Design the sequence.
């Protein structure tokens, strides 16, 4: 029987095991939305903005490891997806974004709601397809999912002309995908792995430096084995938090601009850095000329172009972290580095994350500590800004995929829609969204689908009435010239939540923090929003100023 | 800083809509240089060959190599400047004004030296075709410039490894 292109697309998505599609309807995508109407195997989640759809698909992917799917119409629908696609691209999140396109005979004519989506998204996706013929749909869907989730994952775009959605053909789904030009290198070179093992054996001051790639490769177990077997201290980046438990004595917690002094000092003094699925991002390294100056570097990454990009590497190993670590673990043993371990413990003890309790203020760090007290097992999704850094510092993550955030692009507005995707993907988990007053209002409209679906999201706003992270830089480097960061004119978020049909609470006193968090626990029939009114001018420390070396970290407290 | 060197990449790609834009976009987006670019279908209709001349220090060249490989539609990347010895050719068309017969004779003599071919001759102009490597073409263009070049078009380099290697 012949099926429409739209139906073939939907049947293909079913073959790929898609559970949810996040989308906003519109002219050029109507046949696809129509094919999803009444569909039970795949649930269509109508979001309120396409940016929300792409972040929700992304949050679903980050929480589950499966491919997230977003759907939008042509033109403005597609351009609204762009921020979410770029966010997923920067953090290597497997995602398929489907956009309707104008009729084939209109393409190139500046037709109504026409936009060259392939052109616009070229630098922010792993790959993309423009489909003009319904015959291509089944093969492209299979290829797109294969590309999105293998190798270094990333978003893939499928742009489908409306006539291709309407025209009919037979549904023949490929059993396997073989792309001659795409063969990711999964296994590390044995010679290089042996070299790495030898360097590890010889090192006196080695550290492990793990990133989001470990989470993406589902290699946390192997990373833990390596750490426990060698007893080498480890720092895990913002993107990898939870890959190794932060509660373990070997954990130095997060490195970089707002990382722990211990991790930053360890980089500076190390004689060997073993990087795994981490990319020497500038927010981690600080001034490159002062970064780990005495250390040899081993770099394990699936993406050859990541190795040697920022920092010269002594032993490059291209391969999947899980495979490479499995091999490496066979060749390592306990490192004989007691003086170094003692040094690390001393730094850890001397320079923990700490803050000053100001009189009469709710300290944002205290709120995070209390969230950790009450929700230590939750999936935590932060937005972007100071609250994100405090969450990374004061919540102790112990499991991979427990912490989700937009690390690479730093997209404000990411967290609420991503929390929706995460909650749908992990219905048995508690999902906590730590948001900022500036970030929250960027995608606040997505509270609507959360209320409609009765998702029990815990939305905690660290409300400092400022674009706090920018205000901090203005305070420190621009003489307190607070240009365009004052958000005192924001609405009352508790009342606004109620208007949306969610529970809305406001907390203004330290003693009310814990009771409110407890109360939120009991609300399971829909989202609860707590507006924590915190100290307005608190800053994030430690801080490595932009352009400084990690050793020059400002500890904050005198 | 490492010294900058010129490199010729031979890139085999799927002969598909949009591939050239992906390659060109990669260079512009990451700030890599393209000195010349030549694209055409190969004897296998499903594959196109891109010859790309670029320059940069060793680290940049390595990045270019890996980023080209990362493109899904790229089948194979060879850095001809390091993979072995190679041959390279480029073709240039040069149009020169020949207002008096004396000048035309001279131009034809010079063309002979460069083994150029006359492919169009009109009372007031002449079009020459010259092939060669970069050095030869530069020498030819320098000389013809003294006669006043009206128009010049060149293909960009194509190249391949010597011997049986591919
Ligand atoms: C979409 C977007 N616009 C601008 C920025 C720049 N930016 C980074 S952090 C920040 C402040 C965020 O404010 P808020 O959500 O209130 O968090 P806070 O820093 O106050 O905790 C801004 C504006 C960004 N990251 N993303
Ligand atoms: Mg704020």
Sequence:
């Amino acid at each position: 029987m012949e099926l429409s292109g739209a139906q073939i697309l939907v049947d293909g998505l079913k073959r790929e095991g898609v559970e949810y599609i996040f989308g906003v309807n519109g002219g050029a995508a109507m046949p696809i939305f129509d094919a999803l109407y009444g569909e039970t195997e795949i649930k269509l989640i109508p979001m309120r903005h396409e940016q929300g759809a792409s972040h929700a698909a992304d949050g679903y992917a980050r929480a589950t490891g499966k491919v997230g799917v977003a759907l939008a119409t042509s033109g403005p629908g597609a351009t609204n997806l762009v921020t979410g696609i770029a966010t997923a691209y920067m953090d290597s999140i497997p995602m398929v974004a489907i956009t309707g396109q104008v009729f084939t005979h209109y393409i190139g004519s500046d037709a109504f709601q026409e936009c060259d989506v392939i052109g616009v998204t070229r630098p922010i996706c792993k790959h993309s397809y423009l489909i003009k013929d319904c015959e291509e749909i089944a093969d492209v869907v299979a290829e797109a999912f294969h590309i999105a989730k293998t190798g270094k994952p990333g978003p893939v775009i499928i742009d489908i002309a409306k006539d291709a959605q309407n025209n009919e053909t037979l549904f023949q789904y490929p059993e396997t995908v073989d792309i001659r030009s795409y063969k990711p290198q999964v296994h590390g070179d044995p010679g290089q792995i042996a070299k790495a093992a030898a360097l590890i054996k010889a090192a006196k001051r080695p550290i492990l430096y793990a990133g989001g790639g470990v989470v993406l490769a589902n290699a946390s177990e192997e990373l833990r084995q390596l750490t426990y077997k060698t007893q080498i201290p480890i720092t895990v980046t913002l993107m990898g938090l939870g890959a190794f438990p932060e509660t373990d004595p070997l954990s130095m917690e997060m490195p970089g601009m707002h990382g722990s002094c211990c991790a930053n000092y360890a980089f500076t003094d190390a004689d060997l850095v073993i990087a795994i699925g981490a990319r020497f991002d500038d927010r981690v390294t600080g001034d490159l000329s002062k970064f780990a100056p005495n250390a040899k570097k081993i770099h394990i990454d699936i993406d050859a172009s990541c190795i040697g990009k920022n920092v010269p590497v002594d032993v490059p190993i291209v391969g999947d972290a899980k495979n490479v670590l499995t091999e490496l673990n066979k060749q390592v043993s306990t490192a004989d580095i007691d003086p170094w371990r003692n040094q690390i413990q001393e730094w850890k003890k001397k320079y923990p994350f700490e803050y000053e309790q100001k009189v009469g203020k709710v300290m944002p760090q205290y709120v995070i500590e209390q969230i950790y007290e009450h929700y230590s097992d939750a999936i935590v999704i932060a937005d972007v800004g100071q609250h994100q850094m405090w969450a990374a510092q004061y919540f102790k993550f112990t499991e991979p995929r427990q912490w989700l955030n937009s690390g690479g692009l730093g997209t404000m507005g990411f967290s609420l829609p991503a929390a929706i995707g995460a909650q749908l993907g992990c219905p048995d988990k508690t999902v906590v969204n730590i948001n900022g007053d500036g970030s929250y209002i960027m995608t606040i409209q997505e509270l609507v689908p959360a209320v409609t679906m009765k998702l029990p999201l815990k939305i905690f706003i660290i409300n400092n009435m400022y674009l706090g992270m920018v205000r901090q830089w203005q305070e420190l480097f621009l003489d307190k010239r607070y240009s365009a960061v004052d958000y005192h004119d924001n609405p009352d978020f508790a009342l606004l939540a109620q208007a949306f049909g969610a529970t809305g609470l406001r907390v203004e006193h330290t003693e009310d923090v814990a009771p409110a968090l407890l109360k939120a626990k009991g609300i399971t029939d829909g989202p609860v929003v707590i507006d924590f009114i915190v100290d307005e001018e608190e800053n994030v420390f430690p801080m490595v100023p932009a352009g400084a070396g990690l050793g020059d970290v400002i500890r904050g407290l005198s | 800083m490492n010294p900058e060197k010129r490199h010729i990449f031979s890139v085999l790609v799927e002969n598909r809509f949009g591939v050239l834009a992906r390659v060109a976009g990669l260079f512009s987006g990451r700030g890599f240089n393209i000195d010349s670019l030549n694209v055409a279908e190969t004897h296998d209709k499903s594959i196109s060959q891109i010859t790309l001349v670029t320059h940069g220090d060793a680290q940049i060249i390595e990045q270019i190599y890996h980023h080209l490989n990362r493109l899904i539609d790229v089948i194979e990347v060879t850095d001809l400047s390091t993979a072995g010895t190679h041959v390279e050719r480029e073709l240039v068309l040069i149009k020169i004004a020949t207002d008096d017969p004396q000048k035309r004779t001279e131009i034809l003599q010079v063309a002979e030296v460069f083994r150029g071919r006359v492919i169009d001759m009109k009372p007031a102009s002449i079009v020459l075709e010259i092939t060669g490597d970069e050095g030869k073409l530069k020498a030819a263009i320098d000389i013809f410039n003294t006669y006043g070049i009206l128009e010049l078009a060149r293909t960009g380099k194509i190249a391949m490894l010597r011997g049986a290697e591919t």
Remarks:
- Chain B touches chain A through 20 residues (CB under 8 Å).
- The first strand of chain B starts at residue 5 and ends at 14.
- Helices of chain B lie at 19-30, 58-70, 80-83, 101-113, 134-145.
- The domain at 5-84 of chain B is CATH 3.30.70.260 (Alpha-Beta Plaits).
